[in-house]
Amino acid sequence: MRRKYGVADTTFSRIDMGAIAIKTITKEDPDAEIVRYTVPGIKDLPVAAKRLLDSGCDGVITLGWVGKSMLDKYSYLAASIGLITTQIITSKHVIDVTIHEDEAEDEEQLKNIAIDRVTKHSINLVKLIRDGKNSLTPFAGKGLRQGYGNAGPIED
Amino acid sequence: MRRKYGVADTTFSRIDMGAIAIKTITKEDPDAEIVRYTVPGIKDLPVAAKRLLDSGCDGVITLGWVGKSMLDKYSYLAASIGLITTQIITSKHVIDVTIHEDEAEDEEQLKNIAIDRVTKHSINLVKLIRDGKNSLTPFAGKGLRQGYGNAGPIED
Amino acid sequence: MRRKYGVADTTFSRIDMGAIAIKTITKEDPDAEIVRYTVPGIKDLPVAAKRLLDSGCDGVITLGWVGKSMLDKYSYLAASIGLITTQIITSKHVIDVTIHEDEAEDEEQLKNIAIDRVTKHSINLVKLIRDGKNSLTPFAGKGLRQGYGNAGPIED
Amino acid sequence: MRRKYGVADTTFSRIDMGAIAIKTITKEDPDAEIVRYTVPGIKDLPVAAKRLLDSGCDGVITLGWVGKSMLDKYSYLAASIGLITTQIITSKHVIDVTIHEDEAEDEEQLKNIAIDRVTKHSINLVKLIRDGKNSLTPFAGKGLRQGYGNAGPIED
Amino acid sequence: MRRKYGVADTTFSRIDMGAIAIKTITKEDPDAEIVRYTVPGIKDLPVAAKRLLDSGCDGVITLGWVGKSMLDKYSYLAASIGLITTQIITSKHVIDVTIHEDEAEDEEQLKNIAIDRVTKHSINLVKLIRDGKNSLTPFAGKGLRQGYGNAGPIED
Q: Which of A89, B72, C43, D92 is deepest in the core (most CB within 10 A)?
């Protein structure tokens, strides 16, 4: 059956992460239907994900962008709890990609982090939805990272 | 069909943000019905939003005002979680506008932030309710800000 | 129809705030039925409110007292989230009055804060339950405070 | 009708608080049925309480023990939210007794705190379940403490 | 009846904790069916646990790995709340094993902590699922630790 993916992004973000996600999902699963939903900021992402799942999406990727202040981090915490609650209620995956403005020292580095993280997690979403609960098992414990190079496994 | 918007505000706020929201929504969507609900403070906003949605509103904007202390910020966190839970349960948008007293150095600046943030988010609410999930997509990744000037997108 | 109010208080509190709430509600709405529920501490208030609402109360006021330590503040956060969840589930108001031991420099000041806050919020509860969602709208944006003097609105 | 109490404790605790609770409840309500449930640590207590309530307990006392680090405190916060959610969903009391390792300067003091707190809260549970919502009202605002001597009421 | 256990692990982890859990559960309960579910990171564990329980697992062990930054700790808090909510909704155990990168001074120590913690909690899960609510009662208050040596009970 043809899969249906949701992509939820924001106008707060300084990078068009939605476009990166759509491009990656399309490449990974060319037959897929993709539905995009754009909201103002991270605190609007849980309901966007919920509405996408309500409308028949098999899974969703959310693309959040978070400022540097303590209040931004509290909003991040509230949004994270909401995204997890959405998943528990629906029993469906919502892969949560978040970029924090204080992760990088300049805009170029921030852009590279965002591209890497969105791309890798878009692939993760396709694998989980299309190939199921053991699709990522070959990489269990391998220290994979999104946005940075992999940490790798701790060797014996 | 005629849209119905909820506006939830507080007596704690030092600016009549409800009036700004009603004026903006009326201008953006002249046919709309608008229902106002005033409560004491931010921790009362989630149930106000829930009751407005229960009574048939298509979407709600909440207008919170938060003090400077750590306890105020904890209340902000609890209220934010509650507003997100309300949206997940109802699958409807509640745009959460919050002004923090420590955002600005004087009252005039605080007022300008409030006016800008309420106006922009009232327009966001109308767009999402009336025009749907892709109404804001042209602005995805554009670094829009409410209360301040836009950050803008990170250019290549 | 005769209104029914719930008053939930604690044995942890150092002031009999329940008595103040009952006296105020009785004065404001003489026909009302008032049901009191006393629990050990703030983390027991959400279930007390839930049970009062289950038994037919139209609204509840909870009267919490919080110590000075970081752990007390975490308990405050957990209780606040619980009180908001209770309201979302029931779609009824639970006005949350909390006194923090570190709000004042001596016991007399603390007592004055408690009396003022409980009295004002008891009146808020009556207004919301009896007179509805626009009963407080004349005071929207007026910078009202409970426990302290009003901050007042920011003037043009 | 014969009452049924749940006692949920942990293997993480360094004191057998379950035994103290059972002894106290038995003394206060000799006809009661008591069901014990032992889990590894505090994050397992909410589901233990939920399962005890599912199996017919009228109320539950949980007996948590928390380490000194910031992560332990985050776990305490998550567990507290869970215990409150359990109560809201079931509309039944779960009295939450927690001992923090950094509450005392030595083991003997910690033991005294634990004995006092468990004993007093076990009595609170019996009173609330057997005698109802006004059983503790004579002590409302009296500044009762569990684990320490009472703070007492603020006198006029 | 043959028991069914869920094992949820991550690709973020630097140690293959899923393999340790499966080996331990198999040894403790040779007849058991074990279902593995691998996700990217800790914020995906609650829905993995929920889906495992939906598909008939009697209980689940989740195996999280958490970085050193404050944001990692916020994610830990959100995930912990989600795992507890999952348990409350399903009334089933989800034993939450978490390794924090800052728990140890070098990789070897971190590996020893992980092996010890996963092994002991896998045994805890089998005991709770197979032998029920009093299977751990002989160890109540004994100061058991996972990842470190036991603290032991406070003696009289």
A: C43
With vertex at residue A37, the alpha carbon angle to CA A36 and CA A43, rounded to the nearest 5 degrees, is 140
Question: Chains A and E: how many Cβ contacts under 8 Å?
Answer: 111
Q: Are strands B59-66 and B33-39 parallel, antiparallel or unpaired?
A: unpaired
Q: Render pLDDT for D12-44 as a digit per residue (tens, 0 to 9).
A: 999 999 999 999 999 999 999 999 999 999 999
> Could you tell me the pTM of the whole model?
0.98
Beta bridge partners of residue D4, listed in sequence order: D33
Q: Are B58 and B27 in contact (CB under 8 A)?
A: no
Q: Distance between CA D113 and CA A47 in Å, rounded? A: 45
Query: Helices A45-54 and A70-90: crossing angle, nearest 10°?
Result: 20
- Determine the Cα–Cα distance for residues D46 and D51; give it in Å rounded to an integer: 9
Domains of chain B and CATH, by start: 4-139 (3.40.50.960)
Element (H, E) at D100: strand D94-100
Q: What percent of chain B has pLDDT over 70?
A: 99
Q: Give me chain D's average pLDDT, please.
A: 97
Q: Is the pLDDT of residue A156 over 90?
A: no
Chains with 3+ CB–CB pairs under 8 A to B are A, C
CB-based burial of residue A106 (10 Å sphere; 0-12 exposed, 13-18 middle, 19+ buried)?
exposed
Q: Which of D133, D135, D146, D156 to mutate to probe the C interface, most C CBs <10 Å?
A: D133
Residue C146 to residue C97: CA distance in whole angstroms? 9
Tell me whether C87 touches chain B (CB under 8 Å): yes
What's the token pair of residue A58?
């098999």
Q: Residue for token digits 């069916």?
A: E33
Q: Pick the residue from chain E with its C-alpha nearest to D87.
A: E88
Q: What is the pLDDT of residue B57?
A: 98
